[in-house]
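hey can u check if this looks right to u? its 599 residues, i copy pasted from the old doc so theres a chance i mangled smth
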Amino acid sequence: MRSHHILAAMLVLGLANPGRSGEPSRTPSSARLAAPTPERDVQDLVYLSDKGAVLMRLHVRIDGKPLVDAWEGFVGNFFAYLDVDGDGVLNAKEAARVPPIPMLFNNGPGFAGPRPNIAMALDQNRDGKITKVELADWLRRNGVTPFQLRAGGNQQFQTRVVIAGRAEPPSADAINEKLFALLDTNKDGKLSREELTSASVVLHKLDIDDDEMVSAQEMSGNLDSDIATGVFATVAFDGEVPNNNGPFVPVKPGAANKELAQRLLNHYGRKGGNGGAKKLTRQDLGLGEEAFKRLDMDEDGKLDREELARFAQREPDVELRVRLGKKDGKEPAIEMVRSRDHPSPMAESIRTGRDGTLTLELGSTQLEFGSADTSKEPQFALRLRQQYLARFRMADRDNNGYLDEKEARQSPVYRNVFHMLDRDGDGKLFEKEITSYLDRMKTLQESALSSCASLSVKDQGRGLFDLVDANSDGRLGVREMRQMVKLIDQLDRDGDGQISRAEIPHKYRVDVRRGPSLGNQFAPRAVVVRRMGIVNQPDLPERNGPLWFRKMDRNHDGDVSRREFLGTEEEFRKIDRDGDGLISLEEANRADELFREKR
């Protein structure tokens, strides 16, 4: 009996795939495609690159727990909260207390409008009893899954109302053309090592505001955009944003996927004008010979729809481990998994950046992988406590210390949530029930925000400026401009010692985050005015180092130049140990240590 319960739970959680009953086996060799039981921290992705499909495997842990364990822990906490009588199932009255999903994940009340019959939606077998498995299934159907994908960048967009000046930001292509115009002195359409070595001298001439930095606006010559005054407004929509148009396709580990098969046919069947392709070759998919043989069940040299559905039932091309939340101080947030038994075929194409990110080179495309932790501190219960209590006193028209249903119906705040807050079901809503509810919601929110992970994919286009702008502050400092010559080692694919426009990669930023995706169906509607004033002033990066170093670094580029240094020439030379004309953070820390020792 126990094994049956385990299988049922695995089916709901997406960890088992028994296949369709009665479906004949294609060939006796199908045993070679038998997928192993997936690990509980695994999420697979297929990246549809220009050169072929790449299978990526992420091992995600939250606070040291496998991803699925974290999600199941939240489901258990949620169910226990709803199961008032503790009998192990939910009845209709208990189900009516299911809070709106935005309240759990997006820190919004979600109380606008009447609520549908939640009990009917939860009770799939119509037996009048709602189990934990049915609750988990309902959450999945509403987008609350262990792993969520947000493609195309932030599903919020920023709009700017310009009061004065021009505020159109320069495009990556426009800046590329400006760089080639300035640096390509022999006009051969390529940037040589010698030409890039002189970048700091040439580009310094564009520093109109004399801060020893060159911004994107200064490079484009659009000075009006630097002084335009306006208002930033961030707008988020509630309605689901389709995720199936981006280059990343999430796949359940070990499961066949018909949607993936269709995506592969649509994407790679267009090569050579063959838009209606029903099969794909090894060359179409960019697969290695061994991987292709594993999928080619009938050994006809092509993969049909059914064979393509099993595309992810093989060893991954790229395997990464991601740690979110609490972790050992020595453990990196993201790292490549190296296996002796199954070495990654793309291991040599991955490099680690100074900030801990991993960059995968795929021909003319770069995928930069990182991780980011959203705050697990819930805001809804904290922010609205006083407001809800104030509204309670306004709604209590007879001042008897509680709300009845008639009073609640007349309140825009309580009319749709009366039964949800009336936990003992006596038809009276007391102030202590509201505070108790908000306390429980705070705990539940903490569990919810730590229960899932989301993938954020941002298309950053093709831009030399972005490749050099190491801290992404929209400006190039002296050190960053000096680093431009190193781009040849990164981008020169034909080995001629120069960079052509075609060699500039298309870059995607891929971040794994703790918490839900904002692009799913329960994103709240909001309009937030962000700031007024100089709209194109960059958000300056945080600075580290001794206090004197941070104060002297007036342009926030992470270095102190001779111009910024307030001491003597001799003192500057002593601290600038490598003699490059800049005091780095490391040099500042070392100088500070020596100064303290002398004291």
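Residues 53 and 285 are 6 Å apart (CA to CA).
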